[in-house]
Every structure is written in C-alpha cells, then in structure tokens.
Amino acid sequence: KAGVTQTPRYLIxxxxxxxTLSCSPISGHRSxxxxxxxxxxGLQFLFEYFSETQRNKGNFPGRFSGRQFSNSRSEMNxxxxxxxxxxxxxxxxxxxxxxxxxxxxxFGAGSRLTVL
Amino acid sequence: GENVEQHPSTLSVQEGDSAVIKCTYSDSASNYFxxxxxxLGKRPQLIIDxxxxxxxxxxxxxxxxxxxxAKHFSLHITETQPEDSAVYFCAASSRNQGGKLIFGQxxxxxxxx
Lengths: 116, 113
Known about the structure:
The complex is a heterodimer of chains A (116) and B (113).
Chain A: E1 5-7, E2 10-13, E3 19-24, E4 31-38, E5 42-50, E6 53-57, E7 64-68, E8 74-78, E9 87-94, E10 106-107, E11 111-115
Parallel strand pairs in A: 2-11
Antiparallel strand pairs in A: 1-3, 3-8, 4-5, 4-9, 5-6, 7-8, 9-10, 9-11
Chain B: E1 4-7, E2 10-14, E3 19-25, E4 30-38, E5 45-51, E6 56-59, E7 62-67, E8 72-77, E9 86-94, E10 102-103, E11 107-112
Parallel strand pairs in B: 2-11
Antiparallel strand pairs in B: 1-3, 3-8, 4-5, 4-9, 6-7, 7-8, 9-10, 9-11
C-alpha cells in the first residue's frame, strides 16, 4: 500500500513568488491535513480537507490556501512568498475526518521550501 | 484554542537509562493524545497514543500516562537505546475544535552509547 506522497520534495523560490505543493494521500484516506514545520516551532496546523471541503483552519494568513480534489489529492498554495515561509511543509492523511474522533495521521516526507 | 506545551526541549540520557517527556494542554475537552517520533530527515511517525478514557498505556519499552485533572500527559521510554534518538512530538485534539491535532514544540532526545 503506497504511503502519503508529496511533490515536489525540494524547491527554491524568491520573495513575492507563489508556490503550489501537492499531496496524494494513502488510498482510501479521505482526510488530508497540512502542517508547517520550522525549527523551534514544531508542527503548526495549516488546514484540513475532507470530501473536498475545508473542515479546519489554523492561524495562518490568507496567503496560505488549499484545496482537495474528488480523488482526495490535495494542494496547498502560498502566494506572495516571504522569507519566513521557508519551512518543511508536511501533509498527513487519515481515513476519517478529524472531528469524528481519534485522528491517526500518516505523514508524507514533506516539501522543503526555501524562500530567498 | 488548544495550546500544547512540551518539556524539555532537549534531553540527553545514557543508553539503558529512562527518558520522560511531559506535555500539558489547555482545552479540558481534549480527548485524544498521540505521540510522534521524527528521526533526522524523516517523516513523523506515530509511536503510541492514548484516549481520555484511559490513564495509562504501554507498548514494550514505551508508555504514556494521562492525568486529565491536571491536563498533562507524559511519554516514558525505558532501557533507552541509541536508535531512540530522535525528536518526539506530543499532540492533543479536541472535538470542540474540530478534532484537529495540535502539536507541542518537540523534544530532541539524544541517547549516548
């Protein structure tokens, strides 16, 4: 059974540009959550999608957005990149919506974004 | 919203010793508490979890305890081995907040042979 796949694994952008990251969940998993990981800040929750609908949202500015497709694949977009957006972006999938109970997440390897 | 505090941020132990990592949470409605291990350059992986209706859970050398009254939970690793070296994250989720997992800041555990 394939795991959670994230693309691209590494990317470099400059300030002001935008970026789109992709996440393919485990087959059969319908929930996709996104986290930003930076040294010292741990894992910061961005948002969760289930059945193509955003179900939860973290405390990030509107420059961070996402969507989910009918096949459960998800993308997140960051517009007008800032230096502080440099981070590892992790996506995680789960068979159920987080609000339904214990939300066991399986993480992807992440997309490491560097903003110059 | 939910806030999870994790201590210590770094922990160094000798091989064979025990290690304890502690977390506190703010939302009394939190009902699910997983622990993730992230080895250097790898993805976080679930190692153990506990639900609010249980006070303790063990899996071989690792155990988690939960004190709902004090709103804190702890990870205990006994007979530590060098391969236990990693960053450990605690997390909590509350149905009041849609069940999203909120993570602590992480503890970097170093086991010296």
